[in-house]
Amino acid sequence: MNDKRILILGVGNILLTDEGFGVRAVEYLEAHYRWPAHVRLMDGGTQGLMLMPELQECDFLVVLDVVLGPEAPGTVYLLEGEDLRKSLSFRDSMHQTDLLDTLITCDLAGNRPEAVVIGLQPFDYKTMHVGLSPQAEALLPEFCRKAVAEMARRGILAEPKAE
User: Which positions are annotated as binding Ni(2+) (predicted)?
Assistant: First the structure.
C-alpha cells in the first residue's frame, strides 16, 4: 500500500451528538498517531459532492463514520462493497448527496477509489448537541486503536505519538 495515495476521511455532522463521531475520530488519529507521507487525514464533515476532488486524488479511501446496523450501540463495523450503504453518510444522507453517490460520480469522472468504512453504532445521533455522547466519547480511543489495527492489516502503518 506504500505506492497508493490513501485518504482517511472522518465524516458526519458535529452538531448532532454521535453523528459527528467520524470527525472526532479523525481528529483523534491526527493528534495521537504519526502517519506516512502518502496518507492524508481529513475532516469531511457533511460536504457530500464537495469531497469529489479529494476522493479523486486518492487510491484508497478509509471513511470513519457512524453506522446504523442491527447490533447494540458501541458496536464497531467494517464495511466494504455493497455494505457501504449501512454507513450513515452512505445512505439517505441529510446533506446534498451521500458518499456512495459521490463515489459513483468519481467513477463516471474516471477515478473511483477503493473504499472501506470503519464505523461505530451510535448511542445518540438525533439530539442537537455539539459533542459526543458520554458513551461514544469513552469509546473513541478504543475505536481508534481498532481502526489503526485494521489499517495496519491492510499495510497502512501508523506510529503512536509519545504522550
Answer: 19, 65, 95
Mean pLDDT of 102-118: 82
Pick from 11, 13, 9, 15: nearest CA to 94:
13
User: Residue 97 falls within a domain, yes or no?
Assistant: yes
Whether residue 102 is contained in a domain is answered as yes
Q: Does 65 appear as a known binding residue?
A: yes
User: What is Dmax (Cα atoms) for the chain?
Assistant: 44
pTM for the full predicted model: 0.88
* CA neighbor of 150 nearest in space, from 64, 34, 71: 64
Asked if residue 19 belongs to a known ligand binding site, the reply is yes
User: pLDDT per residue over 56-98, tens digit each?
Assistant: 899 999 999 888 888 999 999 998 877 776 665 544 444 434 6
**Burial (CB count <10 Å: 0-12, 13-18, 19+), residue 161:** exposed
Grid coordinates given for 107: 467513477
- What CATH number has the domain bearing residue 68? 3.40.50.1450
What is the total count of domains within the chain?
Answer: 1
| Rounded Cα–Cα distance for residues 71 and 121 (Å) | 7
Is 135 part of any domain? yes
Q: Find out whether 137 is annotated in a ligand binding site.
A: no
